[in-house]
């Protein structure tokens, strides 16, 4: 019998497994694919971390702790996880992006600078924004390497004594109120507590969650710059940009010889994770080429590489971090809506605190399932 089983070992699940095993818990982690696979939401070589969180000040204590925890992990295990480039939030002065970022910075005393489009181009030449745009720059932002984070978490969990099963499909689970039995392709396993961090598959494992969780196809592309020196990590902060064409996010050159860009919502394709189209289309590329041509120094119009991943969206794009109704030993962490990976380090901590100690120092009210029942 396990103290806890974690289903899904992407960013959130691997972090939870690690923190639980670090507390001496007898834990099992189950992953339906290889560890560090490219079929879900935790691949692609880079994930933004930004402290000036426009989505809501409720996130700021979490992201501040997450940032500190990533640095602690780097120091403890001598593993490069976090690349500090600075982070930009870009939009019209009246936009939700700018006003929300500034509110977060001012309420939590986060060091920041405000740039006009001219000032931004002078400091970071790759950015060529219209004159009516402004930006909030936060020096401590950057990006994480998700594959490195997950591999560290899983390897150190095993070193802590955790059991890990990969390429093991969960077929279902049932609870008698005290003990949860998880049925898998490798047999049945019993546990006192269950954590479901299955990303886009959460609604398949738990049908009632499909009302609140919508998997969405997402595409990112890497474009090769004509002047790569403008796109190096010391000259090109990660960005979150609100423009008429949509909300885009991007990264400096890393791994590939190109700058990576994605669009929140991409083509707004809701999908089944087991039958997602992983072929890259001309429309996928055109959607990402438009902002590159309009707002940045020139890049080759054809991407070096493109990749499909998934978002799992909630109606309000806030996370789900809550016990499953009627099951006080089954916890759901999902619905990260395209902005969750940076929080994996703190979510792993708070899940372990909830499972072992029965509580957490963080206010999780925003992430409760009750919010959907009141609408």
Q: What is the succession of H and E elements? A: EHEEHEEHEHEEHEEEEHEEEEHEEEHH
CATH superfamily of the largest domain: FAD/NAD(P)-binding domain
The number of helices is 9
The CATH topology of the largest domain turns out to be FAD/NAD(P)-binding domain
Main sheet summary: 8 strands, mixed
Mean pLDDT: 97
Q: What class would the helix/strand composition place it in?
A: alpha+beta
Per the principal axes of the C-alpha atoms, what is the gross shape? Answer: globular
Can you tell me the CATH class of the largest domain?
Alpha Beta
Give structural notes.
The chain has 375 residues and is an alpha+beta fold. The chain has 2 domains: 2-43 and 146-209 and 316-373, 3-Layer(bba) Sandwich (FAD/NAD(P)-binding domain); 85-144 and 214-313, D-Amino Acid Oxidase, Chain A, domain 2, CATH 3.30.9. It contains 9 helices and 19 strands. Strands 1, 2, 9, 10, 11, 12, 18 and 19 form an 8-stranded mixed sheet that branches. The protein is globular, with a radius of gyration of 20 Å. The two termini are 39 Å apart.
Please name the defining characteristics of this protein.
375 residues; alpha+beta; FAD/NAD(P)-binding domain; D-Amino Acid Oxidase, Chain A, domain 2; eight-stranded mixed beta sheet; 9 helices
């Amino acid at each position: 019998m396990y103290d806890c089983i974690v289903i899904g070992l992407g960013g959130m699940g691997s972090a939870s497994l690690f923190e639980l095993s670090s507390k001496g818990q007898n834990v099992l982690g189950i992953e339906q694919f290889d560890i560090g696979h490219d079929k879900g939401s935790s691949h692609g070589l880079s994930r933004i971390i930004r402290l000036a969180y426009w989505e809501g000040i409720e996130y700021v204590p979490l992201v501040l702790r997450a940032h500190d925890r990533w640095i602690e992990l780097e120091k403890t295990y001598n593993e490069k996880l976090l690349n500090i480039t600075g982070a930009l939030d870009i939009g019209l002065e009246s936009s939700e992006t700018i006003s929300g970022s500034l509110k977060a910075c001012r309420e939590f005393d986060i060091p920041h600078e405000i740039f006009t489009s001219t000032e931004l181009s002078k400091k970071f030449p790759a950015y060529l924004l219209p004159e009516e745009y402004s930006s909030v720059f936060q020096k401590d932002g950057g990006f994480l390497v998700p594959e490195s984070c997950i591999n560290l978490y899983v390897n150190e969990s095993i070193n802590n004594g955790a059991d890990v099963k990969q390429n093991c499909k969960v077929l279902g689970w049932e609870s008698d109120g005290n003990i949860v039995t998880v049925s898998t392709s490798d047999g049945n396993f019993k546990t006192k507590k269950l954590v479901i961090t299955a990303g886009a598959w959460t609604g398949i494992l738990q049908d009632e969650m499909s009302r609140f969780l919508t998997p969405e196809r997402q595409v990112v592309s890497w474009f090769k710059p004509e002047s790569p020196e403008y796109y190096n990590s010391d000259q090109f902060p990660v960005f979150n940009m609100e423009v008429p064409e949509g909300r885009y996010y991007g990264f400096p050159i890393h791994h590939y010889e190109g700058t990576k860009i994605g669009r929140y919502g991409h083509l707004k394709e809701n999908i089944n994770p087991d039958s997602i189209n992983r072929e890259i289309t001309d429309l996928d590329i055109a959607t990402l080429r438009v902002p590159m041509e309009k707002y940045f120094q020139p890049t080759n119009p054809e991407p070096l590489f493109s990749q499909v991943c998934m978002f799992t969206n909630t109606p309000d794009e806030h996370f789900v971090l809550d016990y499953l109704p009627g099951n006080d030993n089954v916890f759901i962490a999902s619905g990260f809506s395209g902005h969750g990976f940076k929080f994996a380090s703190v979510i792993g901590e708070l899940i372990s605190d909830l499972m072992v100690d029965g509580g957490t120092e963080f206010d999780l009210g925003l992430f409760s399932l009750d919010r959907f029942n009141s609408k």
